[in-house]
Specification:
The chain has 443 residues and is α/β, with parallel strands linked by helices. Helices cover 29% and strands 22% of the residues. The two termini are 34 Å apart.
């Protein structure tokens, strides 16, 4: 049930609203006060990009846990934000004449600030915990090999890093190395020996990274068929099947996760890209009678405990505010592209939320803009390198080194040599990024 928390006059031309999304892949941007917020076209999009179980309003602008309003009248900006990351109310701002009415489903603090950028910075400082750990530089297999990656592909590129003087700290094997958690988290036959790959990476002086989607399974997997009592509710569709979230309060699930993470740590893995994390907070009945956000946060805490304090955790597709303090880096945008978009013809899918969430860098975590793709066949490569390098803190690329041309090789070398950053972005860059995000919404 929503209640009115504020009502204020706004300029219909100059006023604007920042709306935070539920998770990494949710829209986040600045809207004119007259705008209708972005919304899903299909149910699967609602499950995988918005907040499952929470309707999206037909009018106005909706956010999860955080809204900021710049009235455009000369009055200060107003920030409406949750004070507890375990309590994330849904907020909505809608026009009634020339007044903006802000409603919330739960308690929020209301603060006044010079402008929207100052409001977001102050909110980030209020909720920030310990300083983020220094991020490594990363090579990722995904955007070149997708699910067809093999041990040989990884080893080929590992050899190329040394030959071309590429300062890669972490070699991260993405999706494709395993049939998935629902099949026992073992290597797929096509991939080859994961222990041998990890040993080779570590022998080169680098760290071994792995991709996991720990909080969901496909409904056709062995686990889903044999352990229906471990499942919670629908989580979208991928890998040719419907997805379901795991019950992160069930002892069997917790043991499964703990065993799986500890096995990988035992092999020498200490960098984890944790994907599709939203599935841990889908609505549904759980073994323990606790809310979905608490179950999700407890699940992340278990992974941190199993991985160890020295492991580097990257959240992706993750509920944002409930993840505070639980991950080192956070994807703040959708994938650079999906399979079929390798030529860049779909544009820069992640630019709008990356720009909008620039204020989170160095406050909540290290912002992960997703991988740079620098090979000549990707038409957006120069623009994406500039955006990812200027607005993110985690530096990663995802190419077969042998396919980089002179420009691509030099660009990747320079990106990696700069290293990652835990620093907060300058105020003027955050303000410029906000304008960019608002422009991208209508592009």
């Amino acid at each position: 049930m929503s209640e009115i928390v504020d009502e204020l006059p706004v300029d219909l031309t100059a006023g604007r609203i920042y709306a935070e999304g539920w998770q990494s892949w949710s829209p986040a941007t600045w809207y004119p006060v007259t705008a209708r917020g972005l919304r899903p076209d299909e149910e699967w999009q609602h499950l995988m990009r918005f907040r499952p179980g929470t309707p999206v309003a037909d009018d106005g602008v909706q956010g999860e846990g955080l809204l900021v309003v710049e009235p455009g009248t000369g009055e200060p900006a107003r920030r409406y934000g949750t004070i507890d990351p375990l309590v994330v109310p849904t907020l909505r701002a809608s026009l009634e004449g020339d007044r903006l009415v802000v409603r919330s489903t739960g308690p929020v603090s209301v603060r006044h600030h010079r402008d929207g950028a100052a409001a977001l910075a102050a909110y980030g400082d209020e909720l920030a915990g310990t300083a983020p750990a220094e991020p490594p530089t990363v090579w990722c297999s995904w955007y070149r090999y997708f699910e067809q990656v093999t041990a040989g592909d990884v080893l080929e590129n590992l050899d190329a890093f040394a030959r071309h003087d590429l300062a890669v700290d972490v070699v991260q094997v993405d999706d494709g190395w395993s049939p998935g958690l629902g099949e026992g988290l073992r290597e797929s036959e096509q991939f080859g020996s994961l222990p041998a790959v990890v040993d080779a990476i570590r022998a080169s002086g680098r760290r071994a990274g792995i991709w996991l989607a720990p909080f969901l399974v496909g409904e056709q997997t062995t686990l889903a068929r044999q352990r229906p009592e471990w499942l919670v509710g629908p989580a979208g569709r991928n890998w040719g099947q419907s997805l379901v979230g795991l019950d992160l309060t069930h002892p069997g699930v917790l043991q499964l996760l703990d065993d799986g993470i500890r096995r990988l740590v035992g092999l020498g893995v200490d960098y984890f890209k944790l994907d599709f994390l939203y599935a841990g907070a889908v609505p549904g009945r759980r073994y323990q009678d606790i809310d979905a956000v608490t179950a999700y946060r407890d699940g992340l805490a278990l992974i941190r405990g199993a991985a160890g304090t020295d492991a580097y955790l990257v959240g992706c597709g993750a509920p944002l505010l409930p993840s505070l303090g639980q991950v080192d880096a956070m994807r703040v945008s959708p994938d650079t592209f999906h399979e079929g978009g390798e030529d860049g013809s779909t544009g820069l899918r992640g630019l709008m939320p990356l720009a909008a969430r620039a204020w989170q860098q160095g406050r909540f975590w290290v912002n992960d803009p997703d991988c740079v793709v620098a090979r000549p066949s990707y038409s957006q490569r120069q623009r994406w390198v500039e955006a990812a390098g200027g607005l993110g803190g985690l530096r990663s690329f995802s190419d077969r080194v042998a396919e980089l041309d002179q420009w691509g090789l030099a660009t990747v070398r320079e990106l990696l040599a700069r290293g990652g950053s835990t620093g907060v972005l300058p105020d003027e860059r955050v303000r410029a990024a906000a304008q960019l995000a608002q422009g991208e919404r209508t592009a």
